[in-house]
Amino acid sequence: MSFHDAVVPAYLQMLNSVTGLLTKAEAHCAAKKIDPGVLLGARLFPDMLPLSRQIQLVCDFAAKGCARLAHSEVPSTPDTETSFAELKQRLAKTIDYVKSFKPAQFEGADARDVTFPAGPDKSITMKGQQFLSSFSLPNFYFHAATAHGILRHNGVEIGKRDFMGTN
Description:
The protein is mostly helical. 61% of the residues lie in helices and 6% in strands.
C-alpha cells in the first residue's frame, strides 16, 4: 500500500461522514424547531470545544496533515463559520483540497521529517509515519468522534454507521 493510499482515503471517508452528520443535524434542528446556533454551540462538557470548532478542527487536521506529509504549503483557514451551511462548505473545500493530492507527493513521506507547531513558541519534528499515526490521525478522529458525540448527546438520530459513513 502506498503512503498516499494510507492517508488520503482515511481523511476523505471521515470528512464525508462528518458532512452527513451535519446534514442530519440540520434536519433535526428543522424538525424539532431548534435554533441551529444552540446545536452548533453545544459541548459535551463546559471545558470542551463546541460542535462548530470540532468540525473546523476535523478540516484542519485533514488539510494540514496532507500538506505537511507532502511538504506542501500548509493552508490557513480562518475559523469564521457560524452555520451548518458554512461548515458544510468548509468540509467540501477540504474534501476538494485533500482529493487534489497525488500519490507522487507522498513518496518517501513516511520517512521524511515533518515539523509542526506544538504551542505558541514550540514545534515538534517527527518522521512522517510517526506524525501520521501518533499525531495527525488521532487528533483528526478525536474531533470527528467528539462531533458525533455532541450530536448524539443532543438527540440527533445517528449511530456508528453514520460515523463510519456507511449509512
